[in-house]
Write a structure and sequence with these properties.
This protein has 264 residues and is mainly α. Helices cover 62% and strands 3% of the residues. It has one domain. It contains twelve helices and two strands; from the N terminus they run αααααααββααααα.
Length: 264
Protein backbone atom coordinates (compact mmCIF):
# COMPACT_ATOMS: atom_id res chain seq x y z
CA UNK A 1 0.00 0.00 0.00
CA UNK A 2 2.82 2.39 0.85
CA UNK A 3 4.42 1.70 -2.53
CA UNK A 4 1.14 2.45 -4.27
CA UNK A 5 0.78 5.73 -2.39
CA UNK A 6 4.33 6.78 -3.23
CA UNK A 7 3.74 5.89 -6.89
CA UNK A 8 0.55 7.93 -6.92
CA UNK A 9 2.32 11.00 -5.52
CA UNK A 10 5.21 10.56 -7.95
CA UNK A 11 2.75 10.33 -10.82
CA UNK A 12 0.94 13.44 -9.61
CA UNK A 13 4.26 15.28 -9.49
CA UNK A 14 5.02 14.28 -13.06
CA UNK A 15 1.63 15.52 -14.20
CA UNK A 16 2.11 18.86 -12.44
CA UNK A 17 5.57 19.21 -13.99
CA UNK A 18 4.35 18.14 -17.42
CA UNK A 19 4.42 21.73 -18.65
CA UNK A 20 8.23 21.62 -18.45
CA UNK A 21 8.56 18.56 -20.66
CA UNK A 22 10.26 19.14 -23.99
CA UNK A 23 9.06 17.85 -27.34
CA UNK A 24 11.29 15.82 -29.68
CA UNK A 25 13.02 17.83 -32.44
CA UNK A 26 10.81 18.29 -35.48
CA UNK A 27 7.63 17.34 -33.63
CA UNK A 28 4.55 19.25 -34.73
CA UNK A 29 1.71 19.89 -32.35
CA UNK A 30 -1.50 17.96 -32.94
CA UNK A 31 -4.80 19.85 -32.46
CA UNK A 32 -6.28 16.85 -30.64
CA UNK A 33 -3.39 16.84 -28.16
CA UNK A 34 -3.25 20.32 -26.60
CA UNK A 35 -1.88 18.86 -23.33
CA UNK A 36 1.04 17.18 -25.06
CA UNK A 37 3.75 18.30 -22.64
CA UNK A 38 1.84 16.98 -19.64
CA UNK A 39 0.88 13.82 -21.54
CA UNK A 40 4.49 13.11 -22.51
CA UNK A 41 5.58 13.39 -18.88
CA UNK A 42 2.86 10.93 -17.82
CA UNK A 43 3.74 8.65 -20.73
CA UNK A 44 7.37 8.54 -19.62
CA UNK A 45 6.29 7.58 -16.12
CA UNK A 46 3.98 4.84 -17.43
CA UNK A 47 6.68 3.55 -19.77
CA UNK A 48 9.25 3.42 -16.96
CA UNK A 49 6.78 1.60 -14.72
CA UNK A 50 5.99 -0.85 -17.50
CA UNK A 51 9.63 -1.62 -18.25
CA UNK A 52 10.54 -1.95 -14.57
CA UNK A 53 7.58 -4.02 -13.37
CA UNK A 54 4.80 -5.05 -15.74
CA UNK A 55 6.83 -6.13 -18.77
CA UNK A 56 9.23 -8.40 -16.80
CA UNK A 57 6.34 -9.92 -14.84
CA UNK A 58 4.38 -10.54 -18.03
CA UNK A 59 7.35 -12.10 -19.82
CA UNK A 60 7.83 -14.42 -16.85
CA UNK A 61 4.12 -15.28 -16.99
CA UNK A 62 4.37 -16.15 -20.69
CA UNK A 63 7.56 -18.14 -20.16
CA UNK A 64 6.28 -20.20 -17.22
CA UNK A 65 2.55 -20.64 -17.90
CA UNK A 66 1.63 -23.04 -20.76
CA UNK A 67 -0.16 -21.61 -23.78
CA UNK A 68 -3.33 -23.61 -23.13
CA UNK A 69 -3.61 -22.14 -19.63
CA UNK A 70 -2.99 -18.61 -20.90
CA UNK A 71 -5.71 -19.11 -23.51
CA UNK A 72 -8.10 -20.16 -20.77
CA UNK A 73 -7.22 -17.07 -18.73
CA UNK A 74 -7.78 -14.84 -21.76
CA UNK A 75 -11.15 -16.49 -22.42
CA UNK A 76 -12.11 -16.03 -18.77
CA UNK A 77 -11.47 -12.29 -18.81
CA UNK A 78 -13.18 -11.86 -22.18
CA UNK A 79 -16.23 -13.57 -20.71
CA UNK A 80 -15.99 -11.50 -17.51
CA UNK A 81 -16.15 -8.28 -19.54
CA UNK A 82 -19.22 -9.40 -21.52
CA UNK A 83 -21.69 -7.64 -19.16
CA UNK A 84 -19.99 -4.33 -20.02
CA UNK A 85 -20.61 -5.02 -23.69
CA UNK A 86 -24.21 -6.04 -23.00
CA UNK A 87 -25.01 -2.82 -21.13
CA UNK A 88 -23.60 -0.75 -23.99
CA UNK A 89 -25.48 -2.88 -26.52
CA UNK A 90 -28.69 -1.65 -24.89
CA UNK A 91 -27.49 1.94 -24.58
CA UNK A 92 -26.67 1.97 -28.30
CA UNK A 93 -29.92 0.29 -29.28
CA UNK A 94 -28.12 -2.82 -30.53
CA UNK A 95 -30.82 -5.34 -29.64
CA UNK A 96 -29.44 -8.02 -31.95
CA UNK A 97 -26.01 -7.53 -30.42
CA UNK A 98 -27.49 -7.73 -26.92
CA UNK A 99 -29.15 -11.07 -27.73
CA UNK A 100 -25.89 -12.32 -29.26
CA UNK A 101 -23.80 -11.28 -26.24
CA UNK A 102 -26.33 -12.65 -23.75
CA UNK A 103 -26.08 -15.98 -25.53
CA UNK A 104 -22.28 -15.79 -25.41
CA UNK A 105 -22.29 -15.10 -21.68
CA UNK A 106 -24.69 -17.94 -20.88
CA UNK A 107 -23.00 -20.46 -23.16
CA UNK A 108 -19.43 -19.70 -22.12
CA UNK A 109 -20.26 -19.50 -18.42
CA UNK A 110 -22.03 -22.88 -18.41
CA UNK A 111 -20.60 -25.14 -21.11
CA UNK A 112 -17.37 -23.14 -21.11
CA UNK A 113 -16.64 -23.89 -17.42
CA UNK A 114 -16.92 -20.34 -16.15
CA UNK A 115 -15.55 -18.81 -19.32
CA UNK A 116 -12.30 -20.77 -19.50
CA UNK A 117 -13.43 -22.15 -22.84
CA UNK A 118 -15.17 -20.37 -25.71
CA UNK A 119 -17.88 -22.61 -27.17
CA UNK A 120 -19.92 -19.53 -28.13
CA UNK A 121 -17.52 -18.65 -30.95
CA UNK A 122 -17.68 -22.22 -32.25
CA UNK A 123 -21.48 -21.90 -32.14
CA UNK A 124 -21.32 -18.86 -34.43
CA UNK A 125 -21.91 -16.12 -31.84
CA UNK A 126 -19.74 -13.10 -32.64
CA UNK A 127 -17.50 -11.52 -30.01
CA UNK A 128 -18.50 -7.85 -29.78
CA UNK A 129 -16.54 -5.08 -28.08
CA UNK A 130 -18.52 -2.04 -26.91
CA UNK A 131 -17.84 0.35 -24.07
CA UNK A 132 -19.37 3.47 -22.58
CA UNK A 133 -16.82 5.77 -24.22
CA UNK A 134 -17.95 4.44 -27.60
CA UNK A 135 -21.59 4.84 -26.51
CA UNK A 136 -21.03 8.49 -25.65
CA UNK A 137 -19.48 8.96 -29.08
CA UNK A 138 -22.50 7.35 -30.72
CA UNK A 139 -24.67 9.80 -28.79
CA UNK A 140 -22.75 12.70 -30.31
CA UNK A 141 -20.41 13.56 -27.44
CA UNK A 142 -17.10 14.95 -28.72
CA UNK A 143 -13.93 13.07 -27.82
CA UNK A 144 -12.22 16.06 -26.29
CA UNK A 145 -8.42 16.36 -25.91
CA UNK A 146 -6.17 13.34 -25.88
CA UNK A 147 -5.17 12.39 -22.35
CA UNK A 148 -2.62 9.94 -20.92
CA UNK A 149 -3.86 8.63 -17.57
CA UNK A 150 -1.26 7.64 -14.96
CA UNK A 151 -0.84 3.84 -14.91
CA UNK A 152 -3.91 3.28 -17.14
CA UNK A 153 -2.40 4.73 -20.31
CA UNK A 154 -3.87 6.45 -23.41
CA UNK A 155 -7.37 7.89 -23.35
CA UNK A 156 -9.26 11.09 -24.07
CA UNK A 157 -11.72 13.13 -22.02
CA UNK A 158 -14.75 11.24 -23.33
CA UNK A 159 -13.20 7.82 -22.82
CA UNK A 160 -12.06 8.77 -19.31
CA UNK A 161 -15.70 9.39 -18.40
CA UNK A 162 -16.55 6.16 -20.21
CA UNK A 163 -14.10 4.19 -18.06
CA UNK A 164 -15.91 5.39 -14.95
CA UNK A 165 -19.24 4.34 -16.44
CA UNK A 166 -17.98 0.88 -17.42
CA UNK A 167 -16.76 0.33 -13.87
CA UNK A 168 -20.38 -0.05 -12.70
CA UNK A 169 -21.03 -2.74 -15.33
CA UNK A 170 -17.89 -4.70 -14.38
CA UNK A 171 -18.76 -7.72 -12.19
CA UNK A 172 -15.48 -7.26 -10.28
CA UNK A 173 -16.78 -3.97 -8.92
CA UNK A 174 -19.34 -5.84 -6.82
CA UNK A 175 -17.03 -8.42 -5.24
CA UNK A 176 -16.99 -7.92 -1.47
CA UNK A 177 -13.70 -9.77 -1.05
CA UNK A 178 -11.03 -7.11 -1.56
CA UNK A 179 -8.24 -9.63 -2.16
CA UNK A 180 -10.26 -11.45 -4.81
CA UNK A 181 -11.31 -8.20 -6.50
CA UNK A 182 -7.80 -6.78 -6.76
CA UNK A 183 -6.31 -10.17 -7.51
CA UNK A 184 -8.57 -10.45 -10.54
CA UNK A 185 -7.66 -6.92 -11.61
CA UNK A 186 -3.97 -7.70 -11.31
CA UNK A 187 -4.24 -10.93 -13.29
CA UNK A 188 -6.38 -9.12 -15.86
CA UNK A 189 -3.67 -6.49 -16.28
CA UNK A 190 -1.06 -9.21 -16.86
CA UNK A 191 -3.32 -10.93 -19.39
CA UNK A 192 -3.87 -7.65 -21.25
CA UNK A 193 -0.14 -6.92 -21.25
CA UNK A 194 0.61 -10.43 -22.51
CA UNK A 195 -1.58 -9.81 -25.54
CA UNK A 196 0.44 -6.68 -26.31
CA UNK A 197 3.89 -8.24 -26.01
CA UNK A 198 4.21 -8.86 -29.78
CA UNK A 199 4.01 -5.08 -30.31
CA UNK A 200 6.96 -4.28 -28.04
CA UNK A 201 9.60 -4.43 -30.78
CA UNK A 202 7.54 -2.15 -33.03
CA UNK A 203 7.04 0.36 -30.24
CA UNK A 204 10.66 0.28 -29.09
CA UNK A 205 11.91 0.89 -32.64
CA UNK A 206 9.57 3.82 -33.29
CA UNK A 207 11.22 7.24 -33.62
CA UNK A 208 8.59 8.76 -31.33
CA UNK A 209 6.86 6.01 -29.31
CA UNK A 210 4.54 8.53 -27.68
CA UNK A 211 3.29 9.80 -31.04
CA UNK A 212 2.98 6.23 -32.32
CA UNK A 213 0.76 5.20 -29.39
CA UNK A 214 -1.29 8.39 -29.57
CA UNK A 215 -2.02 8.09 -33.28
CA UNK A 216 -2.84 4.39 -33.01
CA UNK A 217 -5.20 5.03 -30.10
CA UNK A 218 -7.04 7.93 -31.74
CA UNK A 219 -7.44 6.06 -35.03
CA UNK A 220 -8.75 2.99 -33.22
CA UNK A 221 -11.29 5.00 -31.25
CA UNK A 222 -12.40 6.94 -34.33
CA UNK A 223 -12.96 3.62 -36.06
CA UNK A 224 -15.07 2.26 -33.18
CA UNK A 225 -17.22 5.39 -32.99
CA UNK A 226 -17.40 6.70 -36.55
CA UNK A 227 -16.19 3.89 -38.76
CA UNK A 228 -12.64 5.17 -39.05
CA UNK A 229 -12.93 8.97 -39.08
CA UNK A 230 -13.55 11.61 -36.45
CA UNK A 231 -16.59 13.84 -36.82
CA UNK A 232 -14.28 16.68 -37.83
CA UNK A 233 -12.72 14.52 -40.55
CA UNK A 234 -16.13 13.48 -41.85
CA UNK A 235 -17.33 17.11 -42.02
CA UNK A 236 -14.16 18.22 -43.82
CA UNK A 237 -14.45 15.40 -46.34
CA UNK A 238 -18.13 16.14 -46.98
CA UNK A 239 -17.46 19.84 -47.61
CA UNK A 240 -14.58 18.96 -49.93
CA UNK A 241 -16.73 16.54 -51.92
CA UNK A 242 -19.53 19.09 -52.23
CA UNK A 243 -17.09 21.75 -53.45
CA UNK A 244 -15.54 19.31 -55.89
CA UNK A 245 -18.91 18.36 -57.31
CA UNK A 246 -19.97 22.02 -57.55
CA UNK A 247 -16.81 23.66 -58.90
CA UNK A 248 -14.74 20.97 -60.53
CA UNK A 249 -17.25 18.82 -62.32
CA UNK A 250 -16.65 19.10 -66.09
CA UNK A 251 -19.34 20.94 -67.96
CA UNK A 252 -21.40 18.88 -70.34
CA UNK A 253 -20.11 19.17 -73.90
CA UNK A 254 -22.90 20.27 -76.25
CA UNK A 255 -23.60 17.68 -78.90
CA UNK A 256 -24.01 18.86 -82.53
CA UNK A 257 -27.48 18.67 -83.88
CA UNK A 258 -28.13 15.69 -86.10
CA UNK A 259 -28.49 16.94 -89.69
CA UNK A 260 -31.73 16.07 -91.43
CA UNK A 261 -31.58 13.25 -93.95
CA UNK A 262 -30.93 14.35 -97.58
CA UNK A 263 -34.03 14.64 -99.78
CA UNK A 264 -34.69 11.75 -102.08
Amino acid sequence: MAVAIRSAFLCLGLVLLGGCATLPPGTQRTPRDPWERMNRATYRFNSALDKAVLRPVTRGYVRVVPQVVRTGVANFFDNLSTPITMVNDLLQGQLKGFANDTGRLLLNTTLGFGGLMDPATQAGLDKNDRDFGQTLGKWGVKSGPYLVIPVLGPSDVRDTVGRAGDEFADPRHYLSNVWLRWGLRGLGAIDTRARLLPLDNTLDSAYDPYGFVRNAYLQHRDFKVNGGQSNEDQTEQRLYQEAEQRDEAPAATPQPATPPPPPR
